[in-house]
Amino acid sequence: NPDLPPLLPAEGTPPAAFVRRPVFYLPHGTYDEMVEAARGVAKDCDVLFSGSDNAHAYPARARIAQALRQHGDGLSVRWLPHPSDQPHDIVGPKFWREVARARIAVAGTNAYRNLTMRYLEIPACGTLAVGDVPWPEGGKAQDPAQKWASHMLPIACHGEQSSWPSTPAEIADAIRAALADGGALARRTAAAREFVLSRHSFRAEWA
After folding, report:
1. Which whole-number Å values give the CA distances from 41 to 102, 179, 196, in the listed order?
2. What is the pLDDT of residue 4?
3. What pTM value is reported for the model?
4. Residues 6+ apart with CB under 8 A from 129
5. What average pLDDT does range 133-137 have in this prediction?
């Protein structure tokens, strides 16, 4: 309908300006199968970028893709397109094993800054996520956001006042810095896995 405003807002649009339309919510959570699929997989890649880099739908992911393409010298990056863009069968356990091969994998919220499944799949598979920090549920910008930020490699949203990296060059440098300290990366990754498995697992929710 041309009389309706665009469904996807520009990056940095405040939540009050979002279009009010019905949304069907599908809960995200971790599965035990993610951990099992990743068990014993060797790390042979620095960064995995899987899925879409469409700037309108996933603005933060688009900036990370730009960072890797333009400033990723020296980084081992594997690209896995979304199956709807380029058909492939790397889904489910196959996908989780692909995630486990990387030391860092790209998450990223959607245009409404909502949590996506990548934020749970990546740490559950023993890999550190890089992306923007999801808005906390209920709009309370306090504890939940900081918890997510402390269990990932956070980047700032476009125009956001933050100490986190924002430009593509800064994002690439932050990824290199995280990779340079293998011990710290391992500890951070282990803590992130424990965070999602203890707080966001379907088994815990349904127990």
Report:
1. 10, 18, 20
2. 42
3. 0.83
4. 104, 105, 106, 107, 118, 119, 122, 123, 152, 153, 192
5. 71
